[in-house]
Inverse folding.
């Protein structure tokens, strides 16, 4: 994650210059604080709203002002601006903002029910995991484990990065998303490149071998 700056004409931008006009702008948040704020914000909205002093409705929404309060009381260097910068520039679309509300787009362990979106779902999706999980996943299917839903990726590279959070040698599984949908299961796009579903039974899974190119 890089610094976030404010371009006077184009708002919050990542990196050293505005990609639209080239202005260097003013730094709103450095990379380290950005990472910390993002982790705390998504943690609060996904896993520990109560500890953070915020309340989620059934669809996962919290009052923007309550989250600002939670963030600014935790970090004395943070202001509303900093949270807005994190949300506006999140590379994975982790946050959704609507009016005066904010929610996590995916990743919840607390019980929430996000309405489906009509974004298209590719026929093939991917899931990155640690080698030691593969046998059990291929036998029992993908399960949500500590979260409410299973999370899938739109590309092999994205799946590999997800798996790399758990292991240095991630394994990528190919998911027959078309088959999953045909079987009547809901698959929903969330954020930039994440797809959520209840479970993935083994018949819709196979292992992508190292060096194998994904099928079109
Ligand atoms: C594994 C992050 C054994 C599963 C990421 C995974 C993602 C099984 C782990 C999002 C299993 C759960 C979610 C089975 C599933 N037997 N292991 N039957 N079924 N597993 O962290 O998908 O950056 O809860 O393979 O990038 O890794 O935070 O899920 O390894 O998008 O925005 O159980 O969270 O997003 O791990 O990650 P996790 P995940 P952010």
């Amino acid at each position: 994650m890089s610094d976030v700056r404010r371009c006077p004409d184009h708002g919050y931008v990542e990196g050293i210059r505005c990609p639209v006009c080239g202005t260097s702008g003013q730094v709103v948040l450095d990379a380290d604080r950005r990472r910390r704020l993002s982790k705390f914000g998504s943690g609060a909205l996904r896993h520990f709203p109560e500890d953070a002093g915020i309340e989620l409705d059934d669809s996962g929404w919290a009052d923007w002002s309550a989250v600002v309060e939670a963030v600014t009381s935790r970090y004395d260097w943070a202001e509303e601006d900093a949270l807005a910068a994190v949300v506006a520039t999140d590379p994975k679309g982790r946050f959704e903002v609507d009016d005066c509300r904010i929610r996590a787009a995916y990743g919840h362990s607390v019980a929430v029910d996000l309405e489906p979106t009509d974004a298209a779902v590719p026929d093939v999706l991917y899931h990155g995991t640690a080698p030691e999980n593969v046998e059990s996943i291929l036998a029992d299917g993908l399960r949500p484990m500590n979260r409410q839903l299973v999370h899938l990726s739109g590309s092999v590279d994205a799946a590999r990065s997800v798996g790399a959070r758990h292991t240095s040698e991630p394994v990528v599984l190919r998911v027959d998303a078309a088959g999953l949908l045909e079987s009547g299961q809901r698959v929903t796009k969330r954020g930039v490149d994440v797809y959520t579903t209840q479970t993935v039974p083994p018949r819709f899974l196979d292992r992508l071998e190292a060096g194998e190119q994904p099928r079109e």
The CA atoms of residues 80 and 150 lie 32 Å apart. The radius of gyration is 19 Å.
